[in-house]
Design goal:
By secondary structure, the protein is an alpha/beta fold. It has one domain. Helices cover about 40% and strands about 20% of the residues. It is built from nine helices and nine strands. The strands form two sheets. The chain has a six-stranded mixed beta sheet with strand order 6-5-7-3-2-8, sandwiched between helices. Strand 2 and strand 3 form a beta hairpin. Helix 7 packs antiparallel against helix 8 (about 165-180) and helix 8 (about 165-180) crosses helix 9 (about 195-205). It starts with a strand and ends with a strand.
Length: about 230
């Protein structure tokens, strides 16, 4: 199949050619699904299914912890819908990339993003970041782009004194894990990354500065009357 369709529930898309790999970063709002006001539209899950058919080297990176067992605790409705279905080509090629709870625990992550943080909480959650542990979990930076990203992330943690700053710092930790994966040497020819839209924006801003990366598509602030048009 080779046609353009509108993708339901997609808030933004940033697409790149990186080291001859196609990287599509899809942003969504975790609890906000919508259906496009167009005749030719499909679900995000069906889009992923179509992209994977006949492509054994396509990999999906999704916003959940790689070892999570309780799938109902996944914050994204879209990702839960994929992982609560029976085994399929999308699920078989999908990998969790959210490593934040390895540092701050699931309870700490929920408090940071969904609860009420006291000044003491902010200090404790910020103090749990450790570059050595990040490299142990995800691997050392292997290119100048990743090294520059690490420097920016470290500065973000060093200067974070408000809740918004600390949220962004920990978002950058997860996004480092994504950037590390898509720059690794392997047989993957296409990555589709499905994350919250703020993560998409952060990844876009990082990749847009890399010399070996060609930014080929950008679509932002989409909704049911202004849907992302993609080729399947």
């Amino acid at each position: 199949m080779n046609e353009n369709v509108r993708i339901n529930s997609v808030r933004g898309v940033s697409q790149f050619i990186l080291n001859e790999k196609l990287v599509t970063v899809i942003g969504e709002i975790h609890e906000d699904d919508f259906i496009c006001d167009n005749v030719n539209n499909i679900s995000l899950f069906d889009y992923c299914t179509n992209r994977s058919v006949g492509n054994n080297n396509c990999k999906f990176l999704l916003e959940y912890h790689p070892s999570i067992k309780e799938l109902d605790r996944i914050g994204s409705t879209i990702i839960k819908d994929i992982f609560l279905t029976k085994s399929n080509v999308v699920r078989d090629k999908s990998f969790g990339i959210d490593i934040r709870s390895d540092f701050i625990t699931i309870q700490g992550q929920n408090k940071l993003y969904h609860g009420k943080c006291t000044p003491e909480d902010l200090f404790a959650l910020g103090d749990k970041y450790c570059e050595e542990k990040l490299f142990e979990i995800s691997g050392n930076p292997t290119c100048d782009g990743l090294k520059n990203y690490i420097s920016k992330m470290n500065r973000r943690f060093e200067t974070a004194n408000e809740l918004t700053d600390l949220k962004w710092a920990w978002c950058m930790v997860m996004d480092y894990n994504i950037l590390k994966e898509i720059t690794s040497v392997n047989d993957t020819t296409e990555y589709i990354v499905i994350v919250g839209d703020k993560h998409r924006q952060n990844i876009r801003d990082a990749l847009s500065t890399w010399d070996n990366c060609d930014h080929i598509k950008e679509s932002s602030n989409n909704n049911e009357s202004n849907c992302v048009l993609m080729k399947i």
